[in-house]
C-alpha cells in the first residue's frame, strides 16, 4: 500500500485499464493454441496472462482502502491528471520528440537532430537562442565524432 | 593454469583493452553521477553501439561503465542529495549530511576507497564461487532453470520498492513482451497481431532504452527547475587510519552486497539498503548518529553496492540469468557476439569468464585513481543543465535503438515503450522487473516446455519430480517461502509474534 494511503489522480482508472489489458492478453494467449495441450506454444503465455490478471486485480483491490484524491468529478480528475503528469512542458517535449522522429526520414539525421536540439533547448531553457544554437552545434559535433568516427555506428 | 592467468591479465596487458576499461570507468563515474543518466541507461545505449566490436573490447568498455556508474551515483548523492543511481539511495542518508557539515571531500574520498574494497571483494567472490556454481549448474534440469528464473522474478517483485502485486505485474508484462514473435519450437506467431514486423520479436535492448532512457528523460522534465546545490569539496584522500577503522564493517557489508548481488534479479539498490540496515543495527557507537552524517552509514551502502556488481555476474555467467538490470543488458551483448551465457560458457569459453574477472579488478583500480582526482571538473560537469541533458538523452536513445537493426520502426517502438514506462513510473511501477521479465520470460517458457516434454506432458509427474529431486525441492521451497513471505497472513502472524514478544 502507498505510504500516503491516498490514491493518485487517475490511479484507479489506470489500474482498471491494466486489468482490462491483462484480459486482452489472456484472449491473445488463448488464440495461440487454445487449451490444446499443456505443452503447447500458448501454454506458458496463458499462465503469464493469468498471473497478470491476478496481480492487476490485487492492485485494484489494494486501492479500496485508500482515500480518494481531492477532485470533483471525472472531468476535474482528468484535468488534474493532465496538469500533474502531462503538463504543457511534457506534452510539447513529447510532440517535439515525435516530430523529430518523423523528420529524421524527411530531412536527414543531422539536420533533424540539430533542429530538435535547438528547439528543445530553447523551449526548456525559456529563450536564449544563440546559446541553444551553439550548444546544439557542439553536441552535433560530438555525436559525429563519437558515433560516426569513433564507433562507426549506422545513423538513421 | 598459465592459460587462465593469461586470460585474467588480458585486460591489464593489452593497451587497447586497458584504455577502453579506463575510458569506461571514467565515463561511468560521470554518467552515474548525473541525475537523470543511469548506468543501466548508459549500458543499454552503449551495447547497441558495440555490436560490431570485438567482444573483449565491448566487454572492457561495458565493465568500466558498470563499475564507474555504480560508484558515480554516490557522488551526486553526497553533493546534491540526489542519488545518481538507485543503488546510491542509501548513500544519501548520511553522505549529504556530511557534505552539509563541510565534509564532502572526505566523504567522497572514503566512499571511493570503500567502493574499491567492495568491488574487489565482489570480484574475488565471483572468481571463487562462479566455477563451483557453474559446475553445479551443469546438473540443473530444465525444471530447475524454470524455478531459478521464477525465484528471480519473485525476488525482484517483492524486494523492489512498492507492492509485490505491482512487481509481479511488471515482470509478467515484461515476459509477455519477451514472448512476442515466433515460437522457437513450432515457429507459430505469438502476440504478433498479424504483423510481419513482430514475427522477429521485440529486441529487449529497444525495450530497455525506452524504459530507462526515454521514460527517465520525460520523468526528469518534472525536476527541470531544481536549482543546483554547490558544496565545498577539499581533502579528498582519506587517512589510512580512517580506512582501517572502517575495514571490518566494509568487509561485512561487502559480503552482504555479494550475496544479495548473486540472487537473480536483485541488484545493488537492495544490497545497499540491506547493508545500511546492518550497519545501523550492529554499530553501537557510530562516529555521528545515523542519518546525521555517520561515516558508517556511508561505508556500508558504498561497499555493498560495489560488491553486488561482482555478485551480479555470478548468475549471469553461470546460469545465463541476470543478477540485475545491467547484467541483463550484458547478456544481450554476449548473445549478440555469439556467446551463450550459462553453464556451458564456463566450459566452452572460459576465457570470457577469466577475462571478465581480470577486467572487473582492473576497473576497480581505475576507479580508485579517477575517484580521487578531477573533483573540480566533476563539480562543473554534474551541474550540466537538464534542459540540455534531456534532449541529448533522447537523441542518444534514437541513435542507440537505430543502430541495433537499422530500423526506424524499432525507434518508434522505443518511444512507445518510453511513454508506457513514464506512465507506469507515475503510478509506482518499477522498470527493473519489466526488463527481467522480458529476459527471463522466454527462458522460463523454454525450460517449462522442456521440463514438460521430459515427463511426457504429465503435470503430476512434474510435480513429483519437483519434490523428489533434492535440488528441485530446495528451489521449490524457496519459491513457496518467497510467496508465503509476502502474504498478508504471514505478515499478520509476524505482527502477532512481535506483539506477544513485546508483552514478554
Automatic annotation (TrEMBL), chain A:
Coiled coil: none
Pfam family, any one: TctB
InterPro entries reported in the protein's UniProt record: DUF1468
Signal peptide: none
Protein's UniProt keywords contain Membrane: yes
Residues covered by the DUF1468 domain: 14-156
Domain of life: Bacteria
Transmembrane spans: 12-30, 42-61, 91-123, 129-155
Keyword annotations: Membrane, Transmembrane, Transmembrane helix
Name listed for the protein in its UniProt record: Tripartite tricarboxylate transporter TctB family protein
From TrEMBL, chain B:
Segments traversing the membrane: 20-47, 59-78, 107-133, 145-162, 168-186, 198-219, 255-276, 325-346, 352-375, 387-405, 411-441, 462-484
Keyword set, alphabetical order: Membrane, Transmembrane, Transmembrane helix
A Pfam entry, by short name: TctA
Entries under InterPro entries matching the protein: DUF112_TM
Residues annotated as domain DUF112: 18-436
Protein name stated in the entry: Putative tricarboxylic transport membrane protein
